[in-house]
């Protein structure tokens, strides 16, 4: 499911991202600067959301989260991605996600925790970070966990739908999206763990049949 959303989404946004990336490189902006600036923008959007400005929060977080496609494009266009850039990108993703979900918890607390949305939000926050951790740790061990129904893009989109429903005045909208997100994020943790387990090479001694 995740790649079905991610691949066409990238193709669509590339029409805006590619010329923007070329322009920024021409005026001397670096990919790492875009990575950090995009995260600062997400933090501002998250703060807006926490203060009850759900529509503006969602708009600003969406606009700034889209820079996540811009930094990598810039790095590839200038002829070289960097390991530090990849580390910075992933680290900023985790900070941005923490801020956005933390902001939503703060907002829901002020609303009196409708439909238990705070609990769903905390599950989504923790499970979402674990989803990313499992992939990174699996990679470091030589395993593959690059699967799952709710990768980062899907998680943000579901939260975005909730943010818009909440901004439209539907009190159940944000909690409903968060409960769906909590369930899908937990499922994704198990999908990644199971996939990583299956990709572990069988040791030669166990693979060879006993004579
Ligand atoms: C329907 C209404 C919804 C609300 C409005 C939404 C409108 C959105 C408009 C367009 C859709 C956006 C399409 C985005 C296309 C971008 C595609 C893209 O390039 O994605 C790639 C980018 C980077 O991926 P990486 O592979 O480099 O990143 C990896 C990823 O983080 C991995 O995570 P994991 O899956 O493992 O958890 C890490 O493992 C890995 O370390 C890392 O490298 O991926 C993105 O994820 C970019 C996300 C952009 C999403 C923008 C949409 C945001 C929508 C809503 C925001 C919700 C705000 C809610 C605020 C509430 C009030 C506070
Ligand atoms: N500051 C950066 C950010 C990213 N990269 C490279 O791009 C890859 C991610 O691509 P996205 O299109 O998803 O952003 C990342 O793994 C790095 O290889 C970079 O070099 N510098
Ligand atoms: Mg990126
Ligand atoms: Mg990123």
Short description:
The protein has helices spanning 2-26, 31-50, 54-65, 67-77, 83-110, 117-140, 152-167, 173-198, 204-207. The protein has 211 residues and is mainly α.
Could you characterize the architecture of this molecule?
The chain has 211 residues and is an all-alpha fold. Helix content is 79%, strand content 0%. It has nine helices and no strands. α1 packs across α4 (67-77) and α2 packs parallel to α5. The protein is flat, with a radius of gyration of 19 Å. The model has no long low-confidence stretch (mean pLDDT 95). It binds ligand LH5YIG7M, the ligand Nc1ccn([C@@H]2O[C@H](COP(=O)(O)O)[C@@H](O)[C@H]2O)c(=O)n1 and magnesium ion (2 copies). One magnesium ion binds at residues 68, 71-72, 89.
Keywords for this structure?
binds the ligand Nc1ccn([C@@H]2O[C@H](COP(=O)(O)O)[C@@H](O)[C@H]2O)c(=O)n1; 79% helix; binds magnesium ion; cell membrane; mainly alpha; 211 residues
Helix content: over 70%
Backbone CA Rg:
19 Å
Structural class: mainly alpha
Task: List low-confidence stretches.
Answer: none
Distance between the termini: 44 Å
Beta-strand content bin: under 5%
Number of helices, where a helix is a run of at least 4 consecutive DSSP H or I residues: 9
Number of DSSP-assigned strands: 0
Largest sheet: none
The average pLDDT score comes to: 95
How do the helices and strands follow one another from N- to C-terminus? HHHHHHHHH
Overall morphology: flat
Question: What ligands are attached or bound here?
Answer: ligand LH5YIG7M, ligand L45E5XJ5, magnesium ion
